[in-house]
UniProtKB/TrEMBL annotation:
UniProt-recorded Gene Ontology molecular function terms: DNA binding
UniProt record similarity statement: Belongs to the BlaI transcriptional regulatory family.
UniProt protein name: BlaI/MecI/CopY family transcriptional regulator
SUPFAM superfamilies noted in UniProt: Winged helix' DNA-binding domain
Source organism of the structure: Paludibaculum fermentans
Keyword terms of this UniProt record: DNA-binding, Transcription, Transcription regulation
Length: 128
C-alpha cells in the first residue's frame, strides 16, 4: 500500500496518535497546545480525511465517540516526507546536510550516529 501524502495538520494528528495510542476526536484536539488549538470541527474533518486516506482507522465506539488509531507507522510517514523533501533537491542530500550544519541543527553526535548506521548498512551489503 502506498503511503498517503500528509499535510502539517494531518501529521500533528498522527503524532498525537503515535504518542498516546488510540484516541477520540476530542482527545486528539486536547493533545494540541491551548495556544493555537484547532477547532473541534477542524480536527474532526481532518481525522475523517485521514480515515479516507487509510492513515488511521476507527477501532471502537464509546457512547457517541469513535476511537481512532494510527494505521501507518511514524517511521514510514517520516521516511516518505524526507523522500519528498530530497526530491526537491533532485535526490541529493548534500544541500540539506549543508543547511543543517550551517544552522547548527546537525551535531557531531548526529554525524557519529549516522556514520554508525552507514557502517552497519555497508556490513549488511557485504554479507549479501
Amino acid at each position: 500500500m502506498a503511503l498517503p501524502k500528509l499535510t502539517k495538520l494531518e501529521l500533528q494528528i498522527m503524532e498525537a496518535l503515535w504518542n498516546r495510542g488510540s484516541l477520540s476526536i476530542r482527545e486528539i484536539q486536547e493533545a494540541f497546545p491551548d495556544d493555537g488549538r484547532p477547532a473541534y470541527t477542524t480536527i474532526q474533518t481532518t481525522v475523517y480525511r485521514l480515515e479516507t486516506k487509510k492513515a488511521l482507522r476507527r477501532v471502537k465506539k464509546i457512547s457517541n465517540a469513535h476511537i481512532f488509531e494510527a494505521v501507518i507507522a511514524r517511521d514510514a510517514a517520516q521516511g516518505k516526507l524526507i523522500d519528498e523533501l530530497l526530491s526537491l533537491f533532485g535526490g541529493r542530500s548534500q544541500p540539506l546536510m549543508a543547511h543543517l550544519v550551517e544552522t547548527g541543527k546537525l551535531t557531531l553526535e548526529d554525524v557519529a550516529e549516522a556514520e554508525g548506521l552507514l557502517r552497519k548498512l555497508a556490513g549488511k551489503e557485504k554479507a549479501k
